[in-house]
Amino acid sequence: MKRLTDRLNELSEGKTYPFHMPGHKRNTELMGTLLPYEIDITEITGFDNLHGADGIIDDIQSRLCSFYKSKKSFLLVNGSTCGIMSAITCLCCIGEGIVAARNCHKSVYKAIELYKLSPAWVSPEFDASTGIMGRISPQSVENALKSSSAGLVVITSPTYEGVISNIPEIAKVCHKYGALLMVDMAHGAHLPLMGGFEEAYGADIAVVSLHKTLPCLTQTACLNVYSDKIDVARLAESLSAFETSSPSYPLMASVDRCMTLIEKQGCQLADKYKSLLGDFYDRTFRLKALRIYRTDDYGKLIIACDKASISGSELFARLRDSYAIECEMASARYVVTMSSMCDTCEGFERLIDALFEIDKELTPQQKLPLTLCGVPKVCMTSYEAVRREKECVELTKAQGRISAEYVFAYPPGIPLLAPGEEISDGILSGIAELEAAGVEIHTDYGSLMISVLK
Ligand SMILES: Cc1ncc(COP(=O)(O)O)c(C=O)c1O
Q1: Which fold has domain 266-361?
Q2: Is the Cβ atom of 152 under 6 angstroms away from ligand 1?
Q3: Which residue's CA is the nearest one to ligand 1's atom 10?
Q4: What would the pLDDT profile of 246-302 be if each residue is shown by its tens digit?
């Protein structure tokens, strides 16, 4: 079978006139070639249909299946976000319990809201020096399952910072209590190439953002089903509710191209990548004030400044403004730099040189331990809270009130507070600490105000 990318190229070079969507009609004379108009089509004959794929798109899904060793893989074009929403709403009934890690992405919180689910939250370990969330322990999942009738457990692994939990052990606990395990592996799409990450597997269902760590266009992701207990037909139905009915061919073609690259050169590219990473860690070991905080997925380069005279946001700005290095995100005490197998030797050299230059000007500094925001008291479901009458108050005067909205530190979009939760003193000090360190706090009415229940 010819591959999707080849077929799209043939089509763009041919003389077929497109009397079909999209409206730009692949007219590059009019639109220029900056955007991929030549290959932007809709589901015309011979090009399969993402929702019910059995041809050229299913070929990509089969290759994803063998890469992720899944029973079934769904190619997604609306990010892991749509995979998470679809899976949770497929696997839970309205009003049920769910066990979820507190450091889950906002899409998990949104699915919980939509289906009026009652969450039993599980807190990850916390490194008070850097503020980095650690692993979810199997014991904490067991404790939550004992006190909940949840049929689904959702955790994030690897995290934004590359922390991987013991998934096989957590899966055993879930299955003992008759619950399914969903792992948000949005940040782990590349793990099969890295080797030694078997502990990342064992979930019943997992989602990966292909676009985050593999050479695929933004929004591409993949939902991997590993267990017979998951009704694949129902899941497909659920996906059709949360994912566009006009999937982008350029996005899907980028996954086709990425899989071809991995099939042909994956091992060489991964070896080169691992050697660049090895060199990075060896050399940056000599930094004096900054330090590299190595996590399980060591492709996430975490530059910690918990013992240096600079904040995460200042370091982020220094790298961008003085060295033209744009990093992924800044937290109070660290910066996340995402690397991938497409990085170059020159890129790594630039980062290492910049870090040493900045480090030279810094002095070691003792900083107080950070506050863990913790899990607030849940007073009602988020579904109920967002529908109640609300008012807007200053954040500093909100202690003891019930939140009517989500409060995020962004990125990575993990809520500190959800609707229906009590605003405690601890939460307010956690938010103030993050803000003071220059981390962006998102609320509906700007960072100083919050909407609360009347
Ligand atoms: C842990 C986690 N899960 C899910 C997502 C959503 O992924 P996507 O952007 O592919 O929808 C993100 C995005 O940053 C994330 O960090």
Answers
A1: Aspartate Aminotransferase, domain 1 (3.90.1150)
A2: no
A3: 79
A4: 999 999 999 999 999 999 999 999 999 999 999 999 999 999 999 999 999 999 999
